[in-house]
Specification:
Blueprint: E1 3-10, H1 17-33, E2 38-40, H2 56-59, H3 69-81, E3 84-91, E4 98-104, E5 110-115, E6 136-141, E7 144-150, H4 159-167, E8 172-176, H5 183-196, E9 199-203, E10 217-219, E11 235-238, E12 244-251, H6 252-261
Parallel strand pairs: 1-2, 2-3, 7-8, 8-9
Antiparallel strand pairs: 1-12, 3-4, 4-5, 6-7, 9-10, 10-11
Length: 285
């Protein structure tokens, strides 16, 4: 039985890049001790998503390149621990920075680089550029290969994000986050998992971080089992508001059997009826 253990680092940032690096490394080591195959950080951990009470020219100046020591240290750590790490950071980019996650595999290789597509342009994130699209990688883990995609925070509010990742083969979506995870946002994540028959792991900041409340979650995407009556709760983990490392195991065999035999996802889509979706352009981007 293939069970993929994911650790969500629901952590408070320290206020400095060096402090976040030190704290992040220590947390990854603890996650490995808990048996994690993949460890995920909350959104933009390099600066602790500290963007609301400072001028844009101040916090954007803290952007770092993808080959900065802060980032590469987690690649080296991944190889040292034999564990995949999804590290998040504000990436130096022209004309504007990017909100980026790099996923290192258990050998320290970059398996995927993803930058947030749906930036919150109604707020401080108007100072950021959007990423170039949604990506899926084949991640080598101790329990075998798994197809992993990513979306960041506001991306989850758009059904197209998870749908595209599903169509590209994603079985698991990693979702760094920085906002209050209340009933509606949690319901959106549950829906994305349900309608695409995939698992979604979301890592948020704890409730002592402004405008965040913890409640990191993992939905495993399996709404029912043929051999069991009724429906099951896809939420296999919901953290409280506290700081901590929260883990859960996704049963990949169960998920793959479900995807092979059930009716959501790509099974009965009528693609010919969706052409108008590509004809309408958002007035705001």
């Amino acid at each position: 039985m293939s069970k993929l253990k994911i650790a969500l680092l629901q952590m408070t940032p320290t206020g400095t890049l060096a402090g976040n690096l030190e704290k992040g490394i220590a947390a990854c080591k603890k996650a490995k001790a808990l048996g994690a195959d993949i460890t995920l950080f909350p959104e933009m951990f390099s600066i602790g998503y500290d963007i609301y009470d400072r001028p844009a020219e101040v916090w954007t100046a803290e952007a770092i390149p993808a080959d900065d020591e802060f980032v590469t240290s987690f690649g080296k750590l991944s190889a040292e621990l034999g564990m995949a790490v999804g590290i998040t950071f504000l990436e130096n980019h022209k004309p504007k920075p990017l909100n980026t996650m790099i996923l290192f595999d258990r050998y320290g290789r970059q398996a995927m680089k993803y930058s947030k597509v749906h930036t919150c342009d109604f707020s401080a994130e108007i100072a950021l550029d959007s990423g170039d699209g949604f990506h899926v990688c084949e991640l080598d883990t101790a329990v075998g290969s798994v197809n992993v995609g990513a979306m960041i925070c506001f991306d989850r509010e758009f059904p197209e994000s998870a749908r595209l990742l599903m169509l590209k083969g994603a079985e698991v979506i990693l979702a760094p986050n920085a906002c209050p995870m209340e009933i509606n946002r949690l319901s959106a994540l549950r829906t994305r998992a349900y309608e695409n028959m995939l698992a979604i792991a979301t890592c948020n900041y704890p409730d002592i971080v402004p405008d965040c409340n913890g409640h990191s979650t993992i939905f495993d995407g399996v709404a029912w089992l043929r051999e069991e009556p009724g429906v099951r709760d896809m939420c296999i983990l919901e953290a409280d508001g506290s700081e901590g490392i929260f883990t859960a195991e996704i049963d990949l065999d169960m998920l793959r059997d479900y995807r092979e035999n059930e009716v959501m996802g790509d099974a009965y889509r009528k693609v010919w009826a969706y052409a108008e979706l590509t004809k309408h352009k958002s007035a705001k981007g």
